[in-house]
Amino acid sequence: MSIESRTLENVSSNRLRTIALYAGLYGTAALFLVPYWYMFATSFMTRDLVYSEVPHLIPWDLTLYWYEYLLTSSLIVQWTVNTVLLAGITTVVVILIDAMIAYSLTRLDWPGRRAIFAVIVASFMVPGIINLVPVYIIVSELGLVNSIWGVVLPSAANPLGVFMLVQFFKDIPEELEEAARLDGFSRLRIFTHIVLPLMRSALAALGLFIFIWTWNAFVWPLLILQSETMYTLPIGLVTLQDNMGVTEPGVIMTSAVIASVPLLLVFLLMQKHLVRAVEMQGTTK
Predict the structure, then answer these.
(1) How much of the chain, in percent, has pLDDT values that exceed 90?
(2) What angle do CA 132, 136, 139 make, to 5 degrees?
């Protein structure tokens, strides 16, 4: 067999392997997307299609009945606004506090900082459910029950966020801060004008994780938020199904769409920062 024939055979074999690989990846992705597509399609189906013996993946007869039902028969708009406010405030507070803690652990020399960092890492092993009762008593004594701040403040310092940012702060050259100090920058100005901009991708990635976690939080908001007008989406949708006896598949699927679409949009907007943060951490020493 000539060299040219072997070369063509190798190229053809590589192409076939590449095609098979991508076909497998796209096929696997499609399998994962089928339940989400069924959820989305069901939210636009008529009652006859929803209760049909044969499952339908395409809503041939489109309707907005289930969305109109939720908008007129529940406080879903108020719950959505509450969830957006809660997730947004929590994300901003956690980013600011975790960034300051991580910066002090990596740049400031104060006694006991190594022990404090060890305690922060060790806190990963403590189940959060253990702290529910004592934290609830503290929040109740502060008069923050049935308020957004009663949900936000116990989550203000996230140990995982501190641990994550410490690793990124270690990779920022200290020479940049030394040069800024020679130019007359204060410690606070160095932190806000030099360090934080360099950490933009890492902070965005942390913010994405905190936003998703807060959006889906259920147990702690359920304990603190006692009035229906203060409910978040996860709590409101569950109580809607329980208290009103709503077991309609159309209502359930439509509720899931309303609760998941904002998260999908946030993830798509922040995806490049998440990828950039992973690349930064993967290319550092």
Answers:
(1) 13
(2) 140
Cα–Cα distance, 276 to 270 (Å, whole number): 10
Give the integer Cα–Cα distance in Å for 196 and 206: 13
Q: Residue 36's pLDDT is what?
A: 85
Quick one: three-class SS letters along the chain? Answer: CCHHHHHHHHHHHHHHHHHHHHHHHHHHHHHHHHHHHHHHHHCCCCHHHHCCCCCCCCCCCCCCHHHHHHHHHCCHHHHHHHHHHHHHHHHHHHHHHHHHHHHHHHHCCCCCHHHHHHHHHHHHHCCHHHHHHHHHHHHHHCCCCCCHHHHHHHHCCCHHHHHHHHHHHCCCCHHHHHHHHHCCCCHHHHHHHHHHHHCHHHHHHHHHHHHHHHHHCCHHHHHHCCCHHHCCHHHHHHHHHHHCCCCCHHHHHHHHHHHHHHHHHHHHHHHHHHHHHHHHHHHCC
Q: What is the pLDDT of residue 285?
A: 46
Instruction: Return the closest-CA partner of residue 171 out of 148, 199, 140.
Output: 199
Read off the pLDDT of residues 202-245 as tens digits, 9 standing for 90 and up. Answer: 888 888 889 989 998 888 999 899 888 899 988 888 887 766 55
Average pLDDT in the 188-201 region? 84
Tracing tokens 């529940």 back to the chain, one arrives at 74
Cα-based torsion angle of the residue sequence 95, 98, 102, 108 in order, rounded to the nearest 10 degrees: 100
